[in-house]
Amino acid sequence: MPTIKKKSALWYLFRAPVYFYRWHLGWLFGRRCLMLSHTGRRTGLRRHTVLEVVEYREKGPELIVANGFGPDCDWLRNIEANSNEEVTVGFQRFAASHRFLEEAEAMQVIQDYERRNRIIAPLVRRGFSWLTERPYHGDESDRREFVHHIPLIAFRPRVC
Known about the structure:
The chain is an alpha+beta fold. It has one domain: Electron Transport, Fmn-binding Protein, Chain A (Pnp Oxidase, Chain A, Roll), CATH 2.30.110. The chain is built from five helices and six strands; from the N terminus they run αβββαββαααβ. The chain has helices at residues 9-22, 74-81, 103-116, 121-132, 140-149, and strands spanning 33-39, 46-57, 62-66, 86-89, 92-100, 152-157. It has a six-stranded antiparallel β-barrel with strand order 1-2-3-6-5-4. A hairpin with a 6-residue loop joins strand 1 and strand 2 (46-57). Helix 3 crosses helix 5. The protein starts with 8 loop residues before the first helix and ends with a strand. 25% of the residues are buried.
């Protein structure tokens, strides 16, 4: 898994969208990104992470994201420890619950993502190669390997 050092230029670049959401400009991203608000498992402080939406499903709604930085990333460990996450997407904001996608469903989501982004396919494949640290060519075995290394998580409004 690639790592990004805190306070590096790349870290600041990835953190920049959080400020758009804080300034109530998250609607500029439409349904392409979401902001996940979660509670730190050790500190108890409220944290915010902006994630790319790999697939948006109207029913629910359900938003699927890829965890590109592995099982040890802070936001994933935080939602596993305290499931009181909140999602902001476009003008919508809701208390959310999450689930991990099974292999077959995750592979289909990645295949659909590649199809929707076929114009920029070389960039998508390069990004997937960077995330998995191995060549990604877009065939079924590559997708299977991808979903084993990069879990896909679905968020939907929490039912009280």
